[in-house]
Every structure is written in C-alpha cells, then in structure tokens.
Amino acid sequence: MLTYDEIIEKYEPALGLEVHVELGTKTKMFCGCPTEFGAEPNTQVCPVCLGMPGALPFVNERAIESTILIGLALNCSIAPMSRFARKNYFYPDMPKNFQISQYDEPICTDGYLDVEYETPEGMKTFRIEIERVHMEEDTGKSLHVGGATGRIHGAEYSLLDYNRAGIPLVEIVTKTVLGTERYAPQIAKAYVKELRDILRALGVSDVKMEQGSLRCDANISLSPRGSGKLGTRSETKNVNSLRSVERAITSEMHRHAQRLEAGERVVQETRHFQEDSGTTRSGRSKEQAEDYRYFPEPDLLPVAPSAEWIEELRAQLPERPSAHRARLQQLWQVPDKEMAAMINAGVVGIVEETVAQGADPTKARTWWLGEISRLANEREVEVAEMPITPKDVAEIIALVAAGELTDKLARQVVEGVIAGEGKPKEVIAARGIKVVSDEGELVAAIERAIAAQPETAQKVRDGNIPAAGALIGAVMKDTKGQADAARVRELLLGLLA
Amino acid sequence: MSRISNEEVARIAHLARLELSATEIAELAGEMEAILGAVARVQEAAKSDVVPTSHPLALVNVTRPDVVRPSLTPESALSGAPASEEDRFRVPQILGEEA
Amino acid sequence: MSELIYKSAAQLSESLAKKEVSAREVTQAHLDQITKVDKAVHAFLFVDTEGALAQADQVDAARAKGETLGPLAGVPLALKDILAQEGIPTTCGSKILEGWRPPYSATVVKKLRAAGVVILGKTNMDEFAMGSSTENSAFGTTQNPWDLTRIPGGSGGGSAAALAAFEAPLAIGSDTGGSIRQPAAVTGTVGVKPTYGGVSRYGVIAYSSSLDQVGPCARTVLDTALLHEVIAGHDDYDATSINAPTPPVVAAAKRADVKGMKIGVIKELSGDGYESGVSERFEESLEILRSQGATIEMVSCPNFDYGLAAYYLIAPSEASSNLARFDAMRYGLRVGDDGSRSAEEVMSMTRAAGFGREVKRRIVLGTYALSAGYYDAYYGSAQKVRTLITQDFAKAFSSVDVLVSPTTPTVAFLIGAKSNDPVAMYLSDVATIPVNLAGVAAMSLPAGLSEGLPVGFQIIAPAMKDDRLYQVGAALERELAAKWGGVLTTKAPKLNSSAGA
User: Which site from A161, A390, A464, C443 is most exposed, i.e. has the minimal number of CB atoms within 10 Å?
Assistant: First the structure.
C-alpha cells in the first residue's frame, strides 16, 4: 500500500463538490406547507407536495431570492432567463416520480469562492470555481422496518413521511477542481466550511450538516501524473460533517490509489461514507447512465430576474466572511497564527458572539480554542456543535473576572454545561462549586499544611520561595480546589515571613 | 424510418415502470413504428433557426409570497393510501440506494 | 316537471330567480332523467343524488332568505371526472384511481359551489383524457344520444352526452387537443376551450400540462357563456393562470352581432378528408355569417399540417411524466403487494394492471420521445412546430378577427370502428389541435345535421379574446335556431328507459 506522500507523488487528485442546501424559507418550494424540522409525520403536507392528481406547483418567491443571494455571494452570473425542468425517475420518496429541478438553464452560473486552508508554511488561499447554482425540491423520508438498524437492505417494508418533500433545495456545483495536490481533503473541507459560513451570514439556511440542511457529495478521481486526462471518479454521499468531508476524500484517495496500483479499474459509482469506520461503501453503480428525460416543467413559467431586482438583492449582501474575519482580527489584535487556528477550528463566529455578550476577546478565544475544543475533539464533533452557547461562556468568563470562580472551577462549570447539567448558574448550584474566600477558613487550612510539612515550611522561611508550591498544592487539595490560589499564596507567604 | 425493436420497447417500458408481457411489447413495437412514422414529419418543419416553444404563455416570474397556507391533516393525507402505519404511508420494501 | 329538463340554463335561472320553480325541483327533474336514460347513454360514472339535492336545498334556503345569488345558482351541472371533488369518487376514467376520494377540490369545483351550481355527478371520459370516443374509459363506453351505436366523441363524451340526453343543462369539460369541442360537435352541443390560462387547472388531473384547459359546455351559446364567467379567472394555486379580467363573454353572447367583423376560413382545415355533409353545413354557416354583415376571406396557416404530429409528441411526452405519480404508493390501486415484492415491482405491476391500452401506448411513446438521443428529433422538433403554428395564428389574426373551420372532419363514427387503428383515431382531432398548441380560444357549436347526425362549426379567437367566440357563435346560433325551431338538440331523439338497455 502506498503512503499518502507516495499517492501524491504518482497521482494528481481532481475534486468535484456538490453541496445541497435546504433553504430556511417559511414554506416549501412549490406549496405553502411549513418547513419546521422534526414535526410529526405527514403534518406538513398538502395535495401539491404529496403529488396528488390535479395539484400544481407554485414557486416560492423567497426561495428564488435566496438562490440569487447565494449566486451573488459566490460571484456568479445571474441568468436573465432560467427555467425549471422535470427530472424523471421513480422512487417512493419522491411523490410525483419526477423532481422539479433546473437542467440546462440554471439561475446562477460561473462563480468562484476563495478558501483559506492551513499548511506548514501558514495559511494559503485557493480559488474554487463554481459551475452552477440551481433550485430544486427535497424528497420525503423513508423509515425501513423489519431489517437490521433501519437499513434499506433486508427491510420488510418502508414507512414514508413527506414533511420534507418539497422543501426548497439549492444545489451548488463546483467545476472540476485541479491543483489542490496534497491538500485536496483540507481544501474540500475548507470550501464546505467557507460555504457554510457564507450561507449562515446570508441568513438563507440554518446550514446544519447533522440535520441534513447542508449535504455534501464529494466526487474524487486520481489521474497518473503526466497522463493528461482525468481518472474515473466516484461520488461519495452521506458526508454529514465537515470532518467527514476531509476523511471521506482521504479515504477515497487511498482506495482509488490502491485499485490503480493493483491494475484494477475504478468503477464510476455512488458510494456512501461510513462515519464509524471512516471509509466508503459501494452504493449504486452508475455504469448504466440514468435516463432522466429532462424537459421544461410545463406547470411553471421561466424566472427572469430584472436588473433592478438583482441589484436590490445585491444591496442586501452581508460582509463577505473573509473580509469580516480580517476586520475582527485587527479589532481583537489577534496574531496570524492564532487567527488561523480559530478559522481552522471554525470558531470565529462563536468567539464573536461571545464577545458580543460582553466577554474579553482574548479570554473568549482561549476558552473556545482551548478547553471547549479539547472536549469537542474527545467527542469527535465540531466545536460549533458543542452544547454550550456563547452566552454561557461569556457568563463563565464574567464569573472568573469577578473572582467568583477560579480557572479550574470554571472548567468544571463548562464541563457541567456540556454534560447537559444546565446553565452555568445551575451547574454551580448543583455541584456546590464556590470559591473559598473566608480568610479564617483559608488560614486554618494553611496552618494545617504548615503543620503537616514543617520541613518545607522552613525552606520557605529560609527564602526558598518556589518551595511554597507544595504547600499551596496541599491547601488547594484541602479546599477541594475552591480556593483562589493567588490569595492562598499571598496568605502563606505572609504567615512564613 | 427505423424499426423500433422489442428490446427498445422493453427498455422504455422499464423506464416508465410498466410491466408488459412479451406479446404486449411486440404489439407496441409495431404500433410505435406506425405512430412514429406518422409524427416524425415534425422534423421537416423544425429548421434550426426556429426557436422552440415549451409553453403557450409568454409570462415570467410568476411567484407566490413565502406565506404558510393550510396543510392537510395526516388522516386526510393518508385517506387514500393503500396502506399506512403510524401516520406514515406504508410501502413495500424499497430496493436500491439509501436515501 | 319533465319539461324542466328541456330548458336552457338561462331559462332555468330566470324561473329560479322568480321562484317559479325551486332548485330542488330542477335538480330532481334532472336526477330523474338520469335514472331514466343513463342506462342507455352511460354518461355518468357517479351520480351524487344526495349531495346534489343538499346543494339544491342550500340554494333554495339562501334564496328564501333573500340572499343575492349568482345567475346559475340552483342550475344543475355534470362534471367531467377529470376534476378532483373533495370526498367524491374521482377516477379520470381509469382503474388505477378507482375508489379514490380526493381530500381536496379543484378550484373550478370551488367556484361552481360558490356560485350555487348544483353538481349532479361525474361524467365518463377516455382514460386520462386520452381519446376521441370515450371508448378508452375503464368503465365502459358512453353512447351518443343521437344514435346509441355511435361514439359521443372524446375525451369528454360523458359531459357532451349528458347535455344531449337532457341529463344536465350545463357540463364541464377539459380540452387538450379537442376533448371539449369534438364531443360538442358530434353531439350537437356547444363547447368552449378558453384561452390557455383563462381557467384554473388546479385540481384538474393533468394529461398534458401545457395544452390542457378546462372549459364550459352547454346546449346554447349563452348558457356556455354564463358558465364560462363562473369558472374563469385568476387562481393563486395555478402559476399558469392569467392574472387579468375575464373577457366579457356573457355580454358578447347577448350582443350576437357580426356586422363588420372579418372572419378567416382556414384553408388547411377543409377539403380532402372532410365529409361532404360536414363541408356543406360549414359553407351554409359561412353564408349566414356573410348575410349578417361579416366579411369572409380565406387564410392560409401552412404549418397546421404539422399540428397533429407535434401534438402526438408533446402530449404523450408531458403525459408520460404527469402519469408517473400513479405508482401505488400514496393513493389508488396497488397490485402484487404480497410482502415478497419490492416497491419497484409493485409499481410496475400496478401500472401495468391499472392503465388501459391507449394510456400505456402514450406513456411508452412519450417516454421514448423524451429519452436520451431522441429528444431533439422528436420533442424538440415538436416544440419548434409549436412556434411555427403560433406564428401562423399571429399572422392570421393580424388580418381577421376570428378564424373558422369545421370542428371535425366527420360526424360521429360507429362504436368500435377505429379502436384498432390509433393513427386513424388521432385524425379526429386534426382541426382542433392547432388551437391547443398555440393556447388560443375556440368554440364548437352545431351547424346542422348530416344524414341525421350533428356537424360542428369551430370558431377560433386570439388569446384573451374569448368574447369574440360568443359574439360570432351567438349570431350564427340565432339564425340557425330560427331555421330549426330551436337549438339543434331540440331535434335530438327523446330517449326513454327502454332505449338501448
């Protein structure tokens, strides 16, 4: 088996990324049903999204505006005339057995997105070219009954809920991305992350990968260096987190290389990423090309946004995340390396929110990049997905500043909040956490420590100040860490002076 | 005019999810040939400079505001279902890729 | 009260308004007629006796309270089974939907209910509106009241036959390539295909979305106009519905004046292939219009020759997609679900069992025309023909106010005569199809009889000029009715319960 370095030496990777975003509109793409996540089954359905005989689609204006906003944010051209088309194929989760999508006349084309990624030589920028951004509708959800663990294979029957059917989806497709070299997995991840930040800033989607409101299909191929042509690609679906984007591509690069080295063919197919093993599993073979019989959707009329409409939307564009980050870096006086670490961990926005809650920028950054990142790593989730809010963190920082918590106690509070024990104040109350600030109690503890370690105490009296550490440690242990170490030291040195 | 083979009709029938017998396929192949023979003349008129018309209305940008309209109740939505369970449509096992 | 059934909707409207008769009496008279003759005619797939009487009672109660009611309040109507009506069986003439009771109503149905029109039941049709004879219904053929051995036209043969058999004074049809006008022609009734987008398609089971249009049917031009006004207008559930006022069709029907109008005779829709009786009645009608002060001129629409071919590519293509939803998963028939078969197998088996021959033929044809490698040659070329036909109409309407032609090349043919020759059957619609391809408005009204069978006269108007149809149609009808001693259906055989049963 080749090592990653050897793979890169022999092959050139080519990426293609298709991101599906569920728009956060109040209603579905083609009907007035609500789009709440997690509603009871089949409570957000109507004749239109159930594909009942006679029902007709009607385009949601906000969905079109959101798509144009996305296109503008991705530096795309907005088509003066675009059309919906029917993509015909049978599948039980698709009520009409065709999906209303866009085919040869998408609404946005030819854009790009610059992404930043970390290398040993520092942050670098890579431009990903966008081929198209188009609108379509989501499918329903199926629950497979009778087989093992809800999997499709071996299921006896399936149960369908169409609440999700018809929710507006925007598909963002890159051109073939060449030149990423060894950073293909990192650049792919950085792209999805940057895209997610942009979409969040635009307010067009809640972009929750774990809930499926942002989904990424990653295409990858390897071509032998100097061959001058692209290799056969695989398309990996079910990539449900930023971390998985990186892992899935790395895994596919290894798998492709292994096949090519063995003189085997890479099959053009759909694969599914498996979170537990970090590898992909074969799905449906695409050797026999699908025949989707696209044709213009006759129930809908073309979308032809006027120049005024587009300019009106352009004026609503928020600050580009990269520009926004540069501004924050200056404002907070963050060194480049620290900023890169924040970008990499995806915490810039959260730190900003924490600062907005009154926290000191450096303290806020330290908490999110330090303790909370560490806990997120343990759990193998993104920092942003941790169950603690910027408000919680700001509150904890304030308590430390007020001397009501020590750093060590504050870590316990953070742990408690993440463990679901409640808000910081609730955790403090429930765990009985408090700083021991009663001087009498502290002095008593110090005296106990001196009595227990008379030799150490003597060393301190003789001027060996560092030796005090052992005594301070004993006092902290005695007070179960609830004492302020600085104050203990002060009192101790006073007593031994 | 090209002959429409039985295999071609069978492929099309599968795309359209129609389980046809061999006899039906053979009959349809013959009928398709006659019909396509009659309709293929559209190609005579369809010069390259003619713009196709997909819709009789010349309107654009017909949209609705993003305002919630009433949905059906689950009972009503499922009222015509051949089978249902737990407020969901019950269907036979689904083959193919996972959604 | 049996004479009630021979009255026009306008006459009933007047009697109802004057409280000379109740909506219940009018409804009951028509229900009685259905009981009496429908075994022979088989116009109805479902008769909603209780529902109709309940609606009639509501109208009577409202009138008794002095509420302001629309002109058609209390007048009965036959509804083509292509429209969804909440809680009422809606089959579209297909086994695949047998037993389906929609959880919602079509916009047109809501408008009818709001206007107090009494819906008697659902009428027979060719399965999914695919046909010109109603022989493709999964629930038996409808017989033409003029001659029970002949077809009533299609796809809306049930609605047209219901009018000619005096089972209802009003009916709703849908017209994709002639499904309102051709049945009107062969049953001696009036039918209008409004401008595309003039009447909402929401709740109308789609055959070919870019061609389908719902329209009014009746025995007189004025009745048709009264119904047109009730069902037309913008709908915010149909994106292809035109947001503009409905043309003044009732006023036009009352004006009935063609003086100074320019009428164009379409050269390509005459001559070879048209029966001599059909051509003679057509010429006589032209003569009447000329005598009433219209100018008649010949107009050429050369691309109409490609209309039939374009239609039989576009309609099946759209249909192959529209009918994909009938898959045994959410509603309708399910076949073969024995626990061992997959959803895909059950879909294919159900669709094979649930769709009739013609529907399968058109699904296969349409799937083929859209499939990779054939799209440009078939569907793409057909769309170009559509452009050419639209241009022909635009050119013609730049010099004339309306265009005219015979509605059909022949009178009603014998049941079974063309059922084994799809291409010959398709020719029935040669004169009606160009109208749908361009989305313009058209009417068929009776021009007289040929060997005892009705002949239809077609009038075509530009988009959103539907009023011109009524203006010309009413003028011609006035003169012909004077000659016949009433509209043509007064000459229709009076059926009785033994006929054809």
Answer: A464
Chains A, B: CB contacts within 8 A come to 144
What CATH number corresponds to the domain at position B34?
1.10.20
Burial class, A29, CB count within 10 angstroms (exposed 0-12 / middle 13-18 / buried 19+): buried
Q: A170: helix, coil or strand?
A: strand
Residue C369 near residue C375, CB atoms below 8 Å: yes
Cβ atoms of A407 and A459 within 8 Å: the answer is no
Smallest CA–CA distance from C360 into chain B, residue? B18
B41 occurs within a structural domain: yes
Q: Which of residues 449-468 of C touch B (CB under 8 A)?
A: 463
Kindly report the three-state secondary structure assignment for every residue of A374-443. Answer: HHHHHHCCCHHHCCCCHHHHHHHHHHHHCCCCCHHHHHHHHHHHHCCCCCHHHHHHHHCCCCECCHHHHH
Q: Please answer whether residues C37 and C497 qualify as being in contact, where contact means their C-beta atoms are separated by less than 8 angstroms.
A: yes
The CATH number of domain C2-304+386-491 is 3.90.1300.10: yes
Is position B90 within any domain? Answer: no
State which residues form the domain around B17: 6-45
Asked whether residue B64 is domain-assigned, the answer is: no
Question: How many CA atoms lie within 13 Å of A3's alpha carbon, on the beta-carbon side?
Answer: 2
Distance CA C347, CA C367 (A): 16
Selection from C151, C186, C159 nearest residue C275 by Cα:
C186
**In the CATH hierarchy, which top-level class contains the domain A439-495?**
mainly alpha
**How confident is the model over A144-193, as pLDDT tens digits?**
888 665 566 667 899 999 999 999 999 999 999 999 999 999 999 999 99
Any C CB within 8 A of B51 CB: yes
- Whether residue C239 and residue A289 make contact (CB cut-off 8 A), yes or no, is no
Number of domains in chain B: 1
Domain extent listing, chain C? 2-304+386-491
